[in-house]
Amino acid sequence: MKRFLVPLILTMPATSWADDFYSAFPVTAATVFSQGAMVSQMAQVQVPEGTHDIFLPMTRSTLGGAPKFAVAGATPISVSFVEGLPVDAKLFWTDAQTAAHDAVEDARQKIVDHRAEFSTLAGQRDGLDAQFKFLNQITPNGKDAVPSLEQLQGIATYLPQALAENRAARGALEPKLIEGQKKLADLEEELARAERELTKLGLPDWNSLVARVTVANDNDPTVQVFFEGFTHQANWQMQYDATLDETASQITLDRRAMVSQYTGTAWIDADITLSSAEPFQRLQPTVPNRDVVQLLKEKQAFPRTVSKSNIRLQAESLNADVQESAVFAGAAAPAPVSGNFNGIEVTYDIPNPTTIFGSNESAEQINLTSITLDAEVDRYASPRRDQTAFVRAISTNETGEPILPGQATFYRGDTLIGQGHMPAITNGAEETLYFGPEKTLPLEVRFLSELKGDKGIFVSSNTRQEELEFEVHNIGPDAQSVTVAYALPITVNEDVEVDVSANPKPDTTDVDGVKGRSEWTLNLNPGEKQIVKINVDITWPDGQTIHWQP
């Protein structure tokens, strides 16, 4: 039965004391949020009867908030923390950490042994090089010349053979030296890999923070210690490959969760849960205060005469203004951090034990099941700002689960289009996604009118007329349906009159509640052009100006 302890120390009457025990304290489970993670750790120690201290390595980042300990198999007495415990840090290593450390030491020893062997070969090479140099220096007229003909004849007989033997020995040694250098490079790479793996796992050192859990054991030799704490040094985010299949009118979302934690200690074969919940939300609403309408007092000017009292008065007033602003700014709520899913909360339980290394060098990828959305696919064009139409897919999320926001790579079939953002889509909601330009549908806008009055954006007369047209051209081999959007001018001033006519008339006006935003649905055969003409008449009071750009 688990018994949760108050963090830090619970005291009980003193009992008989026995040995101290040391154990690794691996992470067994973690619920990872967009910012932070709730981490669970467990140690199992064989403990005889009596009262004992169990020492466990801790990760400092998990001790914020309200960490909790629990003990099974014994009676908990107290929990305290010790820093710089003078014991061998290996006592706190997991099997994986021990194996990784041994791999590093083994790789280092291999390099030491190989360098000793290589030094022997290098010494042989240096000796042969010295011998070769000496033999080449023996000449009849040099400093090593012999005084007699018999000695010269002897050297003449010996020297070619000695040089030949030297060259043969050097030739036989050279491949061994090359192979030795290659083997040394391989061993150094093996050591680098082993050191990287050890760095990923992380190692408690002698100066690590250690929890001392005091327990009283009656008869059960197996004692389990549990810990649960929150760390801010973890996160996860969703990434997508969004592929549009126009033939099937479907969007396939291949999903992967990118999980990172940088606590310095790896989570080895842990049970991982991914959650979109926000663990530290506001607990209560804002209670409204009075809403008072007041007349503003007229500003009082300071005397024009300059005196010490006036300078002091102005300085105090300025200081009061600054202090008031500072208090107001300090009371303002902080800006919201990223990861707000707009109320969407999803939990993914990863079915297999998962390892998340403890450095921030890279995220671990966990593949999730793909989902498919039915879509209505057409083309959308905004000729005032764009040069081509774009591929549009309108889809309703009927998967039974929310789609979380995240970075996405967009494809049309096998063609990479680009990267963008996948919005949050609640279950049952409709969303519009775009899959890049449709280059077979170029757009063009032409301004045909002559202004009545002053030309240009700023007009000083009281009448302005504008005539323009936009054209959509289908240069592709297939018929296309295009929704063309254009913002027709409007006025928010009752003294300004705006008359707009379009031929053909728009199929939809004030789209999405935006006044003036109009849409035409154009069906174009291959090679066909369609043109929409727009006439604008604007009238305003004499003596005033307008600012408008078509």
Structural write-up:
The protein has helices spanning 95-137, 149-201, 308-331, and strands at residues 3-5, 17-22, 27-32, 37-46, 50-57, 64-72, 75-83, 209-217, 222-231, 234-245, 250-261, 267-275, 347-349, 354-356, 364-367, 371-381, 388-396, 406-412, 415-422, 430-447, 458-459, 463-473, 480-487, 497-503, 517-524, 529-539, 546-547. Strands 10, 11, 15, 16, 17, 18, 19, 20, 22, 23, 24, 25 and 26 form a 13-stranded mixed β-sheet that branches. Strands 1, 3, 4, 6, 9, 12, 13 and 14 form an eight-stranded mixed β-sheet that branches. The longest helix has 53 residues, at 149-201. Helix 1 (95-137) packs antiparallel against helix 2. The protein is 22% helix and 39% strand. The chain is α+β, with helices and mostly antiparallel strands and 550 residues long. It has three helices and 27 strands. The radius of gyration is 40 Å and the shape is flat.
Relevant terms:
single chain; 550 residues; alpha+beta; 13-stranded mixed beta sheet; eight-stranded mixed beta sheet; 3 helices; 39% strand; disordered N terminus
In short:
The protein has 550 residues and is of the alpha+beta class. It is built from 3 helices and 27 strands.
Task: Set down the secondary structure blueprint.
Layout: E1 3-5, E2 17-22, E3 27-32, E4 37-46, E5 50-57, E6 64-72, E7 75-83, H1 95-137, H2 149-201, E8 209-217, E9 222-231, E10 234-245, E11 250-261, E12 267-275, H3 308-331, E13 347-349, E14 354-356, E15 364-367, E16 371-381, E17 388-396, E18 406-412, E19 415-422, E20 430-447, E21 458-459, E22 463-473, E23 480-487, E24 497-503, E25 517-524, E26 529-539, E27 546-547
Parallel strand pairs: 2-5, 3-12, 10-18, 16-23
Antiparallel strand pairs: 1-6, 3-4, 4-9, 5-8, 6-9, 7-8, 10-11, 11-15, 11-16, 12-13, 12-14, 16-17, 17-20, 18-19, 20-22, 21-27, 22-26, 23-25, 24-26
Helix pairs in contact: 1-2
